C-alpha cells in the first residue's frame, strides 16, 4: 500500500516531464520548418521583414526595460507602464508636431526632434515618479494583490488622460523621420527602422552602464536584493526606487516618441497592447534581467515581424494571439525566461 | 488594536445571511411586480422614469453581472488568485449559446427541446437549460486547461497569463470567421439572433422582459447560494487557507493544485453561465463586446464590495453595473442639459473605474462590506526582517500602515 502510493506520484512526474520534452521538440520543429520554408521561398523578403521586426523589437526592448527595472526592484508588474509609453507618444505628437510644427525631414526639425526626445523622456520619468510616490509607495508592504490592482487602476487613469488629451480617434500626422526606404541587394531597409535602432542602442548602453557601473546603480542592485540590508548600509531606499521609476519612465518616453515618429499615428489605446507585448519580451528574456529585456524585445519584435510579413504564416490578424501564446507557453515551460535565474520562494 | 477587537466578532452569522437573502428576494420580486403589474397601467411620466433609470434590460444585465462577479469572487476573493482575463469565460459561454441556440450552423438541423424561429429550422437549437449546463461545463474545461499549466506560477505571473488568455480568446472570436474554411464565430458580425428562451412550453419572447429578468435573478440567486455553501464547506475553507498562506495550507495537507484548479473551474463555470444568459438577454453574441475593460469592471465589483464577501460583491456588482449601463449616461444627460454643455460622460468610466481601484487599494483594501478575516489580512503588519529583529529602530516606510 505504501509502496504504491509512493511510486504513483513519481511515475506521473516522469510522464509529465516526458510530455513537456516532446511538446517542446514538436513546437521547435514546427517553428524551424516555418522559418526554413519561408527563407528558402523568398530570402530577401525574409530579411526585409526581419529588419522591420528588429526596429519594432528595439521599441519593445525600451518599454520592456521599464517593466524589468521596476519588477527587479519592487516585484511589481507595472501594468500602467504601457500607458505611460502611450502618453509619451501623445506628448511627442503635441509638442513636436502640433506646437513646434515640425513636419518633414529638415535640419531644423531634426534638432527639434532631439529636443522633444529629451523632453518626452523627462515628462514620462516625472510622471512615473509621481505615480510611484502617490500610489505604489504606500503599498510596498501590502499583500501582493493590492499593488497589482492599483497598477491596473493607474493604467485606466492614464488611458483616460490619453483619451481626453488625444481624443478618441487616432491622429495621423507627417513624421520628421522619413517614411521612405532604400534597398540593399534586394532587401528593403526603411530609414526610420535604421534611425530607431541607432537611437535605441546608445540609450540601452547608457542605461546598462548606469545600472552596472555607477554608485547609484549599485544602490539599485543592493535595494533589489534586500531592501532592509540596503537601508542599513546607508542607502536611501525610497530615493533609489524613485530613480528606478524615473529611468523606466524615461525609456518609455523615448520609445513613445520613436513609435509616434515611425508610424505617424498616435491613439489613446496603443499602450495596452504594446505594453503587454513589451512585458512578454521582458518575461521572455527573464524578468528582472536588463540584458534579458533587450534580448526578449528584439526576439519578440522579429517573431512578430515574421508572423506579420511572411507569405506562409498566420498573418497580421493573429499577431497578438501569437505573442500571447508565446507568453503562455513560456510560463508553462520556462517561467524564469531565457536569461533569468529560477527563484525559489523564501520561507 | 481597535481593529482587532472589531474583527474578532464574526461578521456574517447565518442570521445576517438570512436577512440579506430576504432583502435580495424582496428587491427582485418588487422589480418584477412593478414591471409586470404596475407599469403597464401607470402614467406616462412614471413609465419613462422607470424605462430610463431602471430599465428591465439593465436590471437583467445587473443580475448577470452579479452572477459573474460572484464567479470571479471565488477565484480572487476566496482563493486569492488574480484573474485579469475573466472576460474570456464570458465570451466562451456566449459563443456556446451562439452555437447551440441559433441558426449559425445552418449545415446541420438539430432541435432538442429547442425553440427555432418559425420557419427557420436549420441550425442547432437546444433547450436553454441544457445550453446553460453545456456552457458551464465547456468553460469549466477551459478554466482547467488554462489553469493546469499556470497555477503553479507566482500570483503576478498568473495574472499576466490570464490577461493574455483574455486577449487571445476575443481575437480568436473576431478572426474565427474562416478557420480552414469553417465559419466558427461569424467574425465581427457576431451571431444573431439567438433563440428566445422556451421553458416548459412557455416562450420568453422579446417583450417578456420581466419574465426573463426572473430567470436571470434565479441564476444569480443560485450563484449566491452556491457561493455561501461552498465557502463553509471543505473546499471553501481550503480556498481561504490558500489565500491566507499558501505554504501553511500546503503543510496542513491542502492539495494546492487541485484546490486552485477547483476555484478556477467554479469561477469559469459562473462566467460561462453568465455568457449564455447574456447572449439570451441581448439576443446575440458580438465579439467586440468582450474586451479587457469588462474584466476590469468585474474585478472592480469584487474589490469594491469586499473580496470574499458574497453580499459585498452583490452590492458592488449591482452598483457598478448600474453606473456602467445606466447611471453614467443618465446623470450625464442631466448635467449636460442643466449646464448646456456636451460632455461625453460614458467616456469617464475609465477614470471612474481606475480611480476607484486605486483609492480602494490605498484606503480601504478590504472593500466596503468586508469579511472580517479579509480585513485582518489586508491590514496585517508585514514586518520586514529588520523590523522584527530590531523593533526599536524607527525605519521609514516599514510602519506606515499605522498612519493610514
List key phrases describing it.
heterodimer, A: 347 residues, mainly alpha, two-stranded antiparallel sheet, 12 helices, 75% helix, disordered N terminus, B: 404 residues, three-stranded mixed beta sheet, 16 helices, 5 strands, globular, disordered C terminus
Question: How many β-strand runs of chain A?
Answer: 4
Considering residues with a beta carbon less than 8 A from a beta carbon on another chain, report the largest interface and each chain's count: A-B, 54 and 59 residues
Shape of chain A: globular
Going by helix content, strand content and strand pairing, the class of chain A is mainly alpha
Q: How much is the average pLDDT of chain B?
A: 79
* Total domains of chain B: 1
Q: What percentage of amino acids of chain A are in beta strands?
A: under 5%
Helix content of chain B: 55-70%
- Classification by helices and strands of chain B: mainly alpha
Reading the helices and strands of chain B in chain order gives: HHHHHEEEHHEEHHHHHHHHH
Strand order of the largest sheet of chain A: 1-4
Sequence stretches where pLDDT stays below 50 over 5 or more residues of chain B: 1-11, 383-404
Query: Major sheet of chain B: order of its strands?
Result: 1-3-2
How many angstroms does the end-to-end distance of chain B come to?
Answer: 14 Å
- Terminal CA distance of chain A reads 33 Å
State the oligomer: heterodimer
Count of distinct strands of chain B: 5
Radius of gyration of chain A over all CA atoms, rounded: 22 Å
The ordered string of helix (H) and strand (E) elements of chain A is HHHHHEEEHHHHEHHH
Amino acid at each position: 500500500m505504501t509502496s504504491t502510493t509512493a511510486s504513483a506520484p513519481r511515475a506521473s512526474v516522469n510522464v509529465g516531464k516526458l510530455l513537456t520534452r516532446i511538446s517542446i521538440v514538436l513546437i521547435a520543429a514546427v517553428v524551424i520548418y516555418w522559418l526554413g520554408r519561408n527563407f528558402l521561398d523568398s530570402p530577401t523578403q525574409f530579411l526585409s521583414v526581419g529588419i522591420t521586426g528588429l526596429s519594432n523589437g528595439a521599441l519593445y526592448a525600451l518599454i520592456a526595460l521599464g517593466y524589468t527595472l521596476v519588477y527587479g526592484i519592487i516585484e511589481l508588474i507595472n501594468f500602467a507602464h504601457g500607458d505611460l509609453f502611450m502618453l509619451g507618444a501623445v506628448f511627442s505628437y503635441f509638442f513636436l508636431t502640433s506646437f513646434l510644427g515640425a513636419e518633414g525631414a529638415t535640419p531644423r526639425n531634426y534638432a527639434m526632434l532631439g529636443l522633444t526626445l529629451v523632453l518626452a523622456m523627462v515628462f514620462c520619468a516625472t510622471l512615473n515618479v509621481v505615480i510611484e510616490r502617490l500610489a505604489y509607495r504606500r503599498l510596498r508592504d501590502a499583500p501582493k494583490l493590492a499593488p497589482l490592482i492599483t497598477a491596473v487602476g493607474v493604467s485606466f487613469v492614464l488611458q483616460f488622460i490619453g483619451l481626453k488629451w488625444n481624443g478618441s480617434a487616432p491622429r495621423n500626422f507627417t513624421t520628421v523621420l522619413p517614411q521612405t526606404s532604400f534597398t540593399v541587394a534586394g532587401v528593403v531597409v526603411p530609414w526610420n527602422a535604421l534611425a530607431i535602432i541607432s537611437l535605441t542602442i546608445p540609450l540601452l548602453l547608457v542605461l546598462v552602464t548606469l545600472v552596472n557601473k555607477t554608485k547609484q546603480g549599485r544602490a539599485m542592485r543592493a535595494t533589489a536584493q534586500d531592501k532592509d540590508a540596503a537601508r542599513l548600509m546607508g542607502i536611501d531606499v525610497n530615493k533609489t526606487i524613485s530613480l528606478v521609476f524615473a529611468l523606466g519612465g524615461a525609456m518609455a518616453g523615448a520609445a513613445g516618441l520613436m513609435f509616434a515618429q515611425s508610424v505617424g499615428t498616435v491613439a489613446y489605446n496603443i499602450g495596452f497592447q504594446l505594453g503587454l507585448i513589451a512585458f512578454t519580451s521582458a518575461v521572455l528574456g527573464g524578468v528582472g534581467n536588463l540584458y534579458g529585456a533587450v534580448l526578449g524585445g528584439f526576439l519578440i519584435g522579429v517573431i512578430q515581424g515574421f508572423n506579420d510579413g511572411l507569405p506562409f504564416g498566420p498573418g497580421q490578424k493573429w499577431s497578438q494571439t501569437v505573442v500571447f501564446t508565446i507568453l503562455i507557453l513560456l510560463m508553462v515551460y520556462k517561467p524564469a525566461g531565457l536569461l533569468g535565474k529560477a527563484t525559489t520562494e523564501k520561507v | 488594536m481597535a481593529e482587532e477587537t472589531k474583527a474578532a466578532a464574526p461578521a456574517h452569522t447565518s442570521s445576517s445571511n438570512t436577512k440579506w437573502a430576504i432583502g435580495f428576494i424582496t428587491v427582485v420580486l418588487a422589480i418584477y411586480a412593478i414591471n409586470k403589474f404596475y407599469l403597464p397601467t401607470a402614467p406616462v411620466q412614471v413609465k419613462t422614469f422607470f424605462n430610463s433609470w431602471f430599465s428591465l434590460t439593465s436590471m437583467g444585465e445587473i443580475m448577470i453581472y452579479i452572477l459573474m462577479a460572484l464567479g470571479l469572487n471565488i477565484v480572487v476573493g476566496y482563493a486569492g488568485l488574480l484573474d485579469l482575463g475573466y472576460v474570456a469565460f464570458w465570451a466562451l459561454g456566449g459563443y456556446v449559446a451562439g452555437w447551440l441556440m441559433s441558426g449559425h450552423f445552418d449545415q446541420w438541423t438539430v432541435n432538442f427541446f429547442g425553440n427555432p424561429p418559425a420557419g427557420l429550422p436549420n441550425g442547432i437549437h437546444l433547450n436553454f437549460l441544457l445550453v446553460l449546463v453545456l456552457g458551464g461545463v465547456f468553460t469549466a474545461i477551459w478554466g482547467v486547461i488554462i489553469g493546469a499549466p499556470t497555477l503553479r506560477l507566482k500570483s503576478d505571473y498568473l495574472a499576466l497569463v490570464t490577461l493574455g488568455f483574455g486577449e487571445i480568446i476575443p481575437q480568436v472570436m473576431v478572426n474565427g470567421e474562416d478557420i480552414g474554411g469553417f465559419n466558427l464565430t461569424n467574425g465581427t458580425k457576431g451571431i444573431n439572433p439567438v433563440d428566445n428562451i422556451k421553458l416548459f412550453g412557455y416562450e420568453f419572447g422579446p417583450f417578456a422582459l420581466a419574465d426573463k429578468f426572473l430567470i436571470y435573478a434565479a441564476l444569480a440567486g443560485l450563484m449566491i447560494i452556491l457561493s455561501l455553501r461552498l465557502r463553509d464547506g471543505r473546499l471553501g475553507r481550503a480556498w481561504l487557507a490558500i489565500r491566507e498562506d499558501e505554504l501553511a495550507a500546503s503543510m496542513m495537507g491542502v492539495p494546492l493544485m487541485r484546490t486552485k484548479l477547483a476555484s478556477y473551474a467554479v469561477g469559469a463555470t459562473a462566467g460561462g453561465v453568465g455568457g449564455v444568459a447574456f447572449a439570451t438577454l441581448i439576443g446575440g453574441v458580438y465579439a467586440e463586446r468582450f474586451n479587457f475593460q469588462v474584466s476590469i469592471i468585474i474585478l472592480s465589483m469584487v474589490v469594491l464590495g469586499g473580496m470574499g464577501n458574497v453580499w459585498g460583491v452583490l452590492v458592488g456588482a449591482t452598483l457598478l453595473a448600474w453606473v456602467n449601463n445606466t447611471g453614467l449616461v443618465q446623470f450625464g444627460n442631466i448635467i449636460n442639459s442643466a449646464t448646456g454643455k456636451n460632455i461625453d460622460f460614458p467616456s469617464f468610466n475609465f477614470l471612474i473605474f481606475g480611480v476607484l481601484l486605486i483609492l480602494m487599494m490605498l484606503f480601504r483594501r478590504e472593500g466596503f462590506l468586508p469579511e472580517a478575516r479579509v480585513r485582518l489580512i489586508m491590514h496585517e503588519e508585514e514586518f520586514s526582517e529588520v523590523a522584527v529583529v530590531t523593533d526599536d529602530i524607527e525605519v521609514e516606510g516599514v510602519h506606515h500602515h499605522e498612519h493610514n
